[in-house]
Design brief:
It is built from five helices and eleven strands. The chain has 224 residues and is of the alpha/beta class. The chain has two domains: 115 residues, P-loop containing nucleotide triphosphate hydrolases (Rossmann fold, 3-Layer(aba) Sandwich), CATH 3.40.50; 64 residues, no CATH class. A six-stranded mixed sheet has the order 5-6-7-3-9-10. The chain has a three-stranded antiparallel sheet with strand order 2-1-4, covered by helices on one side. The chain has a two-stranded antiparallel ribbon with strand order 8-11. Strand 6, helix 5 and strand 7 form a beta-alpha-beta unit. Helix 3 packs antiparallel against helix 4. The termini are far apart. The structure holds adenosine-5'-triphosphate.
Length: 224
């Protein structure tokens, strides 16, 4: 990884849509090799925050500094229904200026959807579209990863593989920010922030083990 280690610093970010003050002073910091979560109820401003961090939306005030290359997995997969999985990989290889699709091929194997290589995106299931969405965000091996509800539509096995992938990224010094409306499985995170009333605060929900869901360490609704 050339250059200084990746990091993400957000200081006093504000954002309003007309009279709706969605973000009212968000500050957080991710040092190299951090796997962090942001939870918040529907409409709390999570996507707004990620769009500001990814440079798609301007903050009204405050500062968001990304050090390193950025990977952004949006909540809605941005795919061309007429292109196959392999065509998407080739298209993004060129867009990212990569020499090959080696990392993308690894992710295809890790997330187990290589069999759909020649299937058009419009014919993929929701979960497989999400695997492709995630692969496109990760295939240039970015230093800072912004993942908006990255495991929506995943079956349990894929969900567990997602966390393996995220854990390996952390081990390699990447900053990974996972945004979700549910504080689920928070034991896998180094730090969890809660976005509420326009600001974030570090949060430790009380563990509520639920034996009906396999082996998650914590299963708590963010609104509690
Ligand atoms: N372009 C926009 N114009 C006006 N209001 C907007 C716009 N985008 C979002 N909002 C409003 O800002 C608030 C925060 O929206 P945002 O999508 O950031 O929330 P979220 O936490 O990601 O929600 P969810 O969990 O439902 O995805 C909501 O009240 C939403 O209606």
């Amino acid at each position: 990884m050339p250059g200084p280690p990746p990091a993400l610093h957000v200081r006093d970010v504000h954002k309003s849509y007309r009279a709706r003050h969605v973000l009212r002073g968000v500050s957080l910091a991710l040092e190299p090799g951090t796997l962090a979560g942001v939870v918040g109820e529907n409409g709390a401003g999570k996507t707004t925050l990620l769009r500001i961090l990814s440079g798609q939306l301007a903050a009204d005030r405050g500062e968001a500094v990304v050090r390193g290359t950025l990977g952004h997995c949006p909540q809605e997969a941005v795919l061309n229904d007429f292109l196959t999985v392999a065509q998407h990989l080739r298209y993004f290889r060129v867009a990212y200026g990569l020499r090959d699709t080696h990392r993308a091929e690894e992710l295809l194997e890790e997330l187990r959807f290589g069999e759909y290589r020649h299937t058009r995106a419009g014919e993929l299931s929701g979960g497989t579209r999400q695997k492709l969405n995630l692969t496109l965000a990760l295939m240039h091996d970015p230093g800072v990863l912004l993942l908006d509800e990255p495991y929506q539509g995943f079956d349990w096995e894929t969900y567990l593989r997602f966390w393996q992938v995220a854990g390996r990224l952390r081990e390699r010094g990447r900053c990974v920010l996972v945004v979700s409306h549910l504080a689920w499985d928070t034991g896998r995170l180094d730090v969890l922030y809660r976005l509420r009333e326009g600001a974030v605060e570090p949060w430790r929900p009380a563990p509520v083990p639920d034996p009906s869901y396999g082996d998650p360490s914590v299963a708590v609704g963010a609104s509690r």
